[in-house]
Amino acid sequence: MTQTVSGLGGIGKSSLALHYAHSHRTEYTGVWWINAEIPETITASLAQLTARLTPGIDTSTIASDVLAEWALVWLETHPGWLLVYDNATDPHHLAPYLARLTGGSHLITSRLTHGWDALADEPLHLDVLGLEAAASLLRHLASRNDAAEYSAAAGLAAELGCLPLALEQAGTYVRRTRNTFSGYLERFRAQTARMLATPGNGDPHSTTIARTWRVTVDTIANRDPLAVRLLQIMAWLAPNDIPRDLLDGLANDPGAEADALALLADFSMITLTETTAATHRLVQAVARTPDPDDPHRTEHAITKACATSTSLLMAALPQEPEINPTGWPRWRDLLPHIETHLTHFRTDTTDTALILHGTSRFLLSQRQPVQATAYAERAAAASARLHGEDHPTTLACRHSLARAYQVAENLNQAISLHEQTLTDSIRTLGKDHPHTLIFRHSLAGAHLNAGNLARAIPLYEQTLTDHIRVLGNDHPNTLTSRHSLAHAYQAAGDPDRAIPLHKQTLTDQIRILGKDHPQTLNSCNDLAYAYELTGDLVPAVRLFKQTLDSRIRILGKDHPDTLTSRNNLAGIYLAAGNLSRAIPLYEQTLTHSIRVLGEDHPQTLISRNNLAVAYKAAGDPNRAIPLHKQILTDRVRILGEDHPDTLASRNNLAHAYKGAGDLNRAIPLYEQTLTACVRVLGEDHPMTRTVRDNLRQARSDSA
């Protein structure tokens, strides 16, 4: 029988072979270990077998090949043995021996994953340990089995990628130095190269991760230097799911990258699928750290690989991340690699600042304001340092940061930064520059989000006029301005101006952008909502259904805009009195919003509010009132006392009390809400009128 065991250096192939040989030694007439790295070491190992078999003969003066031949003859005539060929690098080196020696068993360990089919049974490929087993091994090696160390051991095992040799180095080091797992982890992160090259037992001749992989990389470099270069580049990306096409174009010869990746996979340095590559995090750590004694890890080679990975990411980023949904799957594939890559820069470059800015815009399109804000802040600071405060790129980064604040509901920060950016843009670029118009439009949007319609609407009107004059009626930015103005009119309770503008915008966007463009879907949704506000439910239901179906197909069922569409469709069912459809849809939307966006996201609050309203409409105050109270508490905490959504929640809670017959609680709450509405929104705002009517009715009921 012939069995091959393959895997990454340090994965435990030799240890497994040794354990098998020791455990089953009584089943064989003899067991012999052969260093199979090169033909010369195979010959030397067989020669040593002859010396062991002939203890009374001085073999020191006999040539190694003669002694090896004697061993082969002995093996041919004494069946039942086990030969372990350790660290074989080429199947062709072993083929003559396996063909000749048929009276026993052959166990082969190799970093090569392919090429053994003609010589051996189905190869056994070893992978890293599971986290629980890896942590257990660490505790055993370090002689630290107290429960207090379990979490720290698991953290260190995860950092080491659960690779057995790395675990062995760490565990024996912790035991020998009387250190802790946390202490080793801290030092490993600060001195990665040194720790990977330091034997745990202190013996300078012991096998280490760095030594193990140096031999492999030397072999790979001799066959194809491009493979080593690819390994160095991948060290600056996330370890898993690296798009193979990201690495295309590095060689003049088409297909050279595919051959180089295959070679790395052959030696278990990476794993491949048809579209992605993956490598171990410790392979990356070694490749990123300089070693003056390693020609593959010079400062120049590492710096060049880092710069190349930055350039490859830059070239791969799809354009217009906020309005180009066809590029979103690519963004999602690249995002883990962008995140990993950017962690390696203490000082950002021009290229990393651009990557940060583009990524922040993509994250905004996905309604992920926390990470978008972090990247936008870093991009703005880097651009100001590299180009100056008034440079157009800096203004663009600052604008994205203001929008991130806006999406995160940090409206005071958003408005302040929008105002500053607009002022600087007018001064440096001019009042009619397209960027200036965009910045004014965004400022209007921030005021609209803050419920300040008196400032938002004039800004939107001015921006639309300027867009038509500067860019023309059909420019995408003009369409966006028209849509936003219609939305503002709608928020102001003016459907007579909102609906015609929405209809014109939707017609133009279908003609110019296409029916599946995100902005077209937004307009379709807003037109449906405008119809709903006027009580025209038939076209509203049709448009809401159309928008939901399109968003599920284009954006996915968990995208925030899809959740909004599902919520809107439930709302129109509620308005039509179809509670059997509305309530399950609201419940489904709230569950998805909590899972995707979190408990405190504004959209989650809206979903919870709408479900409470539906419960009240169904005559179920026991479920409606607790939800309304929770929503009001959350909105006061998150949005503030005077935010329009907070005022709406207070009105809804009062309405729920009224519906339950508790006028003693309803009337004071209506009065408090009306006073705030008059102060914040004005006497004639639709919400003010609604609250006033509700209060009047409640007082009438109590008379």
Mind telling me the CATH superfamily name of one domain? P-loop containing nucleotide triphosphate hydrolases
- Overall spatial form: elongated
Point out poorly predicted stretches: none
Named at the architecture level, the CATH assignment of one domain is 3-Layer(aba) Sandwich
CATH secondary-structure class of one domain: Alpha Beta
Strand segment count: 8
**Largest sheet composition:** 5 strands, parallel
Description:
By secondary structure, the protein is mainly α. Among the domains are: 124 residues, Rossmann fold (3-Layer(aba) Sandwich), CATH 3.40.50; 67 residues, no CATH class; 107 residues, Orthogonal Bundle (Arc Repressor Mutant, subunit A); 82 residues, Serine Threonine Protein Phosphatase 5, Tetratricopeptide repeat; 85 residues, Alpha Horseshoe (Serine Threonine Protein Phosphatase 5, Tetratricopeptide repeat), CATH 1.25.40.10. The chain is 67% helix and 5% strand. It is built from 32 helices and 8 strands. The strands form 2 sheets. A 5-stranded parallel β-sheet has the order 2-3-4-1-5, with helices on both faces. Strand 3, helix 4 and strand 4 form a beta-alpha-beta unit. Helix 11 crosses helix 12, helix 11 crosses helix 14 and helix 14 packs antiparallel against helix 15. It starts with a strand and ends with a helix. 46% of the residues are buried.
